[in-house]
Specification:
This protein is an alpha/beta fold. It has three domains: about 120 residues, Response regulator (Rossmann fold, 3-Layer(aba) Sandwich); about 150 residues, GAF domain (Beta-Lactamase, 2-Layer Sandwich); about 180 residues, Orthogonal Bundle (Hypothetical protein af1432). The strands form two sheets. It has a five-stranded parallel sheet with strand order 2-1-3-4-5, sandwiched between helices. Helix 11 packs antiparallel against helix 12 and helix 17 packs antiparallel against helix 18. The protein starts with 10 loop residues before the first strand and ends in a 22-residue tail after the last helix.
């Protein structure tokens, strides 16, 4: 299905078997700045909804082949993220109630005033916008809560409770269970924590662990409803009582240490992809928290184990932060692996500068999380193919400060702050967020700026194709002394040449400096 770009106006689908009404509504809504398409019946509308993404559907109640209520039911069954307004010339209180029960946003009787329809449409779109903003805010708050729990608690119970409570509230699930591996690499899992909403305390639906493990290939979550539920529940009673099911593996170092299962017993409820993504982010944070807590218990046994476990603990914290960055990049096929590549280039520069092994480790880890502040930026903005608006540019430019706020509360990750906070400073003082100049910019920030810019140019992005190596190096040298530290550019060119990346290409394209900055 084609997805509507975020920068476009809201899309509205008008469905009515009367051509005159379709035309009137289309004309008036188009003058309001909306993108409007029409369909003559519910069947045609459903096909159009599966081809393109829409914000709103305005549908007549009675139409040949498929009416408004049947269309509404199909929209719910397919979990399409669209609001629906039903209009009818044969309406009764009963049909209005039935439409609202099936999820209609509003119900309007014919004949109607076009101004009333426009007002309802504006109200529906504003509600949709606020719901999406609230969802993003809840996601950010939940991620920060998990981060705070990780940094302040080494007891597993509060972390698990926070994870389960958040899953219940954010998904609207009726029951959430958390299973943990009984012994390391045992493959046996037992329930560690459960929470049920009022009225569902006796819910005992148990998914088939073996089937979940088979479906977790590649650590992918499970999202199921309808007939697919039979695959995951041991008894027919369970599969019939559960309406929607979502299961997320808790993975640490490629090992499944637990599973988070959410069930809904409420008719009409279906977990969507956004909720699955939210739960996956929370579960990835909790997985490392669980491992940290288990390590901490071993720390109490002896001084020797304390020293070893402390190193593992710090590494797990680092991996947790790297997990933030990885979760962010996984939402965009163009930037997937970006931070890992930047870390390799940054280490190469550090070696060329003669940095110590300890400083090289700091450079590598800093590079892996240099864009951590973008976790609060909506994915449709990160993936935007067109030119950014001034407001969008301003939003992107907040990510160094957001990254600093994420890392600064964790004592042994504060060494990463200079790179995260300063990798968009420019050598001539024209960068952000502080406008630092030359050697006032921390060395690690200048290193990552060069590595980040090079990778941004030599990989495909939503807004352009990758440049060949020689063209990218030519642009780096052109920006040396303005955007980039000339000494570091020279070291980078030398080290890449030593590895055989010095072959020239004919007919190279050189982009303007502002088009190549590493993703803003």
């Amino acid at each position: 299905m084609e997805t509507a770009r975020h920068e476009e106006a809201p899309r509205v689908l008008v469905v009515d078997d009367e051509k005159v009404i379709r035309g009137i509504l289309s004309d008036f809504l188009t003058t309001e700045g909306l993108i409007v398409r029409t369909a003559e019946n519910g069947e045609a509308a459903l096909a159009e909804l599966q081809r393109r993404s829409y914000n709103l559907v305005i549908s007549d109640l009675k139409m040949p082949r498929m009416g408004g209520l049947e269309l509404l039911e199909a929209i719910n069954r397919l979990q399409l993220p669209v609001l629906t307004i039903i209009i009818s010339g044969f309406g009764t209180v009963e049909t209005a109630i039935e439409a609202m029960k099936r999820g209609a946003y509003d119900y309007v009787l014919k004949p109607f005033k076009v101004e009333d329809i426009v007002h309802i449409v504006k109200r529906a779109l504003e509600r949709q916008r606020l719901e999406r903003e609230n969802m993003r805010l809840r996601e950010a708050v939940s991620v920060y809560q998990i981060s705070e729990a990780i940094s302040q608690s080494l007891s597993v119970e509060p972390i698990l409770r926070l994870l389960v409570d958040t899953a219940v509230e954010e998904l609207g699930a009726d029951a959430v269970t958390l299973l943990l591996e009984e012994d390391e690499n045992s493959g046996q899992y037992s329930e560690r924590m459960r929470r049920c909403r009022d009225g569902h305390e006796d819910a005992l639906s148990q998914p088939k662990v073996g089937e979940l493990l088979r479906c977790y290939e590649g650590a992918m979550p499970v999202l199921a409803h309808g007939a697919k539920l039979q695959q995951f529940f041991a008894t027919e009673i369970d599969s019939e009582s559960v309406v929607a099911f979502c299961s997320i593996p808790l993975v640490v170092r490629h090992r499944i240490v637990g599973m988070l299962n959410a069930c809904s017993y409420t008719r009409g409820c279906k977990f969507n992809e956004g909720q699955r993504k939210m739960l996956a982010v929370l579960a990835s944070r909790a997985a490392f928290s669980i491992e940290n807590a288990r390590l901490y218990q071993h720390l109490l046994d002896s001084k020797q184990r304390l020293e070893v476990a402390n190193l593992s603990l710090e590494e797990n914290f680092r991996q947790t932060i790297v997990g933030f960055a990885n979760a962010l990049e996984e939402s965009d096929r163009y930037t997937r692996g970006h931070s890992e590549r930047v870390s390799h280039f940054a280490r190469l520069i550090g070696e060329g500068l003669g940095l110590s092994e300890r400083d090289l480790d700091r450079v590598v880890l800093s590079a892996k999380v240099h864009d951590i502040g973008k976790i609060g930026i909506p994915s449709e903005k990160l993936n935007k193919a067109g030119r950014l608006t001034p407001d969008e540019i301003a939003m992107f430019r907040t990510h160094p400060e957001k990254g600093r706020r994420i890392l600064d509360p964790i004592p042994f990750l504060r060494d990463l702050v200079p790179a995260v906070y300063c990798h968009h400073e420019c050598y001539d003082g024209s960068g952000y967020p502080q406008g630092l100049r030359g050697p006032d910019i921390p060395l690690i920030g200048r290193i990552i700026s060069v590595a980040d810019t090079y990778d941004a140019m030599t990989t495909d992005r939503a807004y352009r194709r990758a440049l060949p190596h020689a063209a990218a190096m030519a642009e780096l040298k052109r920006c040396a002394g303005t955007q980039l530290d000339p000494e570091i550019v020279a070291v980078f060119e030398r080290e890449l040449g030593r590895l055989g990346f010095d072959r020239a290409d004919a007919g190279q394209l050189v982009l303007p400096a502002m088009a190549l900055v590493g993703g803003l």
